[in-house]
Design brief:
heterodimer; A: about 300 residues; MetI-like fold; about 70% helix; B: alpha/beta; D-Maltodextrin-Binding Protein, domain 2; five-stranded mixed sheet
Chain lengths: ~300, ~400
């Protein structure tokens, strides 16, 4: 151990090997993510068709986008699906986790059963629920077969409620994961807190609501981010379950982007739609990130 | 290259293929013919091409044209072109040609006198851009057919209709017998195609061309087209309760007598054949809905990307020749259920419905189809409108026509 400290090396060269190792990832992030995003936004102001072409048309693509009935339906669907999916997957996920946390028997078995749908892709989930909700083969047919002849449950072919049919499938697939995250959070709560609450005579539901949930804030934030990103990009589930139908009643923005870029061979329109999706993410994420990280720095 | 990153990734995924015999020149051919009958038809092409001393490397892409075309296009634009690729001739590959990525086939065409053998001429016109020929048409597929289940009409106690109007009149009887009068699957292109067929059948060829070729928006908003929308309104009422997605499931409803009829292209015939049904006895077909017997000359064609490899370019020429060979044409089209592109071949084995089609073709009652007249962009907007129209009874005929006229006014 030497007594004299060498001159402090330049900040730039600290952990040099680590920095060199991360250069490819930094490049990827900058070129692919940032560069690709900027390129997409730029070309959304052009009239590119099959191939990107730089002929500027101003906001034309955006006017057309917001005049298209299909885009309106897609945005509305995403709003309904997003809000309900967020609320229900959190509520059901937490409820299941809290129930599993009661030191019940066969906890492992239940946990596996609840998490199992998550192992299936959205495509498989969509197909399974397409059959389950099919009026001629699925739930409706089974209940009618039991004797309730007038029973009607036909969400996938009813334009006004089709989005709820998709929501059911999404919740079936996704709540297992939420439950697991919540369970991990619950297990992270110190046993002493429960004991203290019990000594003070606080009922269990109050303990959950006012002590445990606030303590699980980081888990909730992680979960919300995971659910929210899933909501914005929902595409495969709709494709597998209804392919946007009946008519255009279950269209979502991501599907609009894909269809117009590749089927309609109209890149400009697809780019405009994807830029709107990006904008909506920014509107949600930026205030949240500001609150979250801004506070952390101050605190 | 503007597309580099995405296309490289896509191409890497698609370019997977097996090594083939080393002696012959390998030529990869991409297409989206993957159903049973289609695969058999492609087998005929491959056999004929292999006989020329080259080797056909099959690049089938599952999931129909909508899935396959983006993959093909990104391979061509991404600098990993295949030897030849299927497109529907018309405007799907227009921009690729304009970007100079496709091979000019004019020399071969003049040498082999394509202009004389290909019938009808409009097929080759669709392959021609700025006076140069860029593709080889291989078959004619027409949309304008009404397929009817004889069994269903028997059950309902009415005669099998001879045209669309009789069909509409028979609908209540079918409904009473628990039969869906008209099967229309949930895929958007089915609703849109059904409307186009109605437009051509109820309105006639000139009306069709005025809307889709001249893009006359005022005419599209007028009373003439109003009549067509009225017919489409009948169609959507008759299609209530179809509850299936894919076109072949809808065809299956007709095959099994669960539905009275279906407006679908001649590719539906393959389904009837596979099910062992006999034209005229088990099912009937009405070209042009029985009102206006016309055949649209849509179909499939092969395009050849510009290649640097000398040997492969040679093989491309051999393939182009093979595709139009009379023997290949017969073998391929019999399996495919489509009509051959040359008039001088003999199709004795054709069934009743195919013969009806050949007859119309021989009389020259042909017209171009939407693939040849409009861009994919416009077609997609049309699909959005009609899939909504057919599923949402709340969308009135007047509103739908107004939106249709809007699409026509901005069509390209």
């Amino acid at each position: 151990m030497s007594e004299t400290y060498p001159k402090r090396p330049s900040q730039l060269f600290r952990n040099l090997s680590a920095k060199i190792a991360s250069v490819p990832m930094i490049l990827t992030a900058v070129v692919v993510f940032a560069g690709g995003t900027a390129w997409t936004v730029l070309y959304s102001f052009t009239n590119s068709k099959l191939l990107p072409r730089f002929s500027f048309v101003g906001l034309d693509q955006y006017y057309r986008l917001w005049a298209a009935p299909r885009w309106g339906v897609a945005v509305e669907n995403l709003a309904i699906y997003g809000v309900l999916s967020l609320i229900f997957s959190l509520a059901i996920g937490f409820l299941l986790a809290a129930l599993l946390d009661q030191k019940i028997r066969f906890e492992d078995t239940f946990r596996t059963i609840f998490l199992y749908p998550f192992a299936l892709s959205f495509i498989v989930t969509g197909l399974v629920w397409q059959w389950l909700l099919n009026p001629d083969f699925g739930v409706q047919a089974v209940v009618r077969g039991l004797g309730w002849e007038s029973f009607t449950f036909n969400p996938l072919y009813d334009a006004s409620i089709v989005i709820y049919g998709i929501l059911i499938a999404a919740l079936w697939q996704g709540t297992g994961l939420v439950m697991c995250l919540m369970l991990a959070g619950l297990r992270g709560i110190d046993e002493d807190i429960w004991k203290a609450a019990r000594v003070d005579g606080i009922p269990m539901w109050k303990t959950y609501l006012f002590i445990v949930i606030p303590m699980m804030r980081p888990v909730f934030i992680t979960t919300i981010v995971i659910i929210a990103s899933g909501i914005i990009k929902v595409y495969d589930l709709v494709v597998a379950q209804t392919s946007g139908g009946p008519g255009i009643a279950s269209e979502v923005p991501a599907k609009y982007v894909y269809d117009y870029m590749f089927f309609a061979q109209n890149l400009g329109q697809g780019f405009a739609a994807s830029t709107m999706m990006l904008l909506s993410v920014i509107i949600v994420v930026v205030p949240w990130a500001y609150l979250e990280f801004g506070r952390a720095r101050r605190g | 290259m503007r597309y580099c990153l995405t296309t490289a990734a896509l191409a890497a995924g698609v370019a997977f293929m097996t090594a083939a015999a080393a002696s012959a020149t390998d030529l990869e051919v991409t297409h989206w013919w993957t159903s049973g009958g289609e695969a058999a038809a492609v087998g005929e092409l491959a056999k004929a091409f292999d006989a020329t001393g080259n080797h056909w490397v099959d690049g089938a892409i599952a999931g129909s044209g909508g899935t396959a075309r983006p993959i093909m296009i990104s391979r061509i634009t991404g600098g990993d072109p295949m030897g030849a690729t299927q497109f529907n001739h018309g405007r799907q590959a227009e921009e690729l040609v304009q970007a100079g990525l496709m091979r000019d086939l004019t020399d071969i065409a003049t040498k082999e006198k394509w202009t004389e053998i290909v019938r009808p001429k409009s097929l080759l016109d669709s392959c021609t851009i700025d006076g140069k020929i860029y593709c080889v048409p291989v078959n004619i597929h027409s949309w304008q057919w009404l397929w009817l289940s004889n069994e269903a009409f028997e059950k309902a106690g009415v005669a099998v209709p001879k045209d669309w109007n009789e069909f509409v009149a028979a609908a209540p009887a079918l409904e009473k017998a628990g039969i869906v009068p008209l099967a229309v699957g949930g895929q958007p292109w089915q609703a849109s195609g059904a409307f186009d067929v109605l437009l051509a059948a109820v309105g006639g060829k000139d009306t069709f061309l005025k809307v889709y070729q001249d893009k006359d928006a005022a005419f599209a908003a007028g009373p003439e087209i109003g009549k067509v929308f009225k017919a489409a309104d009948d169609a959507r009422k008759m299609s209530k309760g179809t509850n299936v997605q894919d076109w072949n499931q809808a065809t299956n409803m007709v095959i099994t007598g669960k539905a009275g009829g279906q407006i679908m292209g001649d590719w539906a015939q393959g389904e009837f054949q596979v099910a062992g049904k006999v034209a005229g006895k088990d099912y009937s077909c009405l070209p042009g809905l029985g009102l206006n017997p016309m055949i649209a000359t849509g179909g499939d064609a092969f395009y050849f990307p510009l290649l640097k490899d000398e040997a492969k370019s040679k093989a491309q020429e051999a393939l182009a020749t093979t595709l139009l060979d009379p023997k290949t044409q017969v073998a391929f089209n019999l399996k495919k259920g489509s009509l051959p592109v040359r008039g001088d071949v003999d199709l004795n084995a054709a069934n009743d419905c195919m013969k009806k089609g050949l007859d119309i073709l021989a009389k020259g009652n042909v017209m171009p189809w939407t693939d040849q007249l409009m861009s994919q962009d416009t077609q997609k907007q049309k699909e959005d409108l009609f899939s909504e129209f057919f599923s949402n009874q709340g969308l009135t005929v007047e509103d739908a026509q107004k939106r249709f006229a809007d699409i026509v006014s901005s069509a390209d």
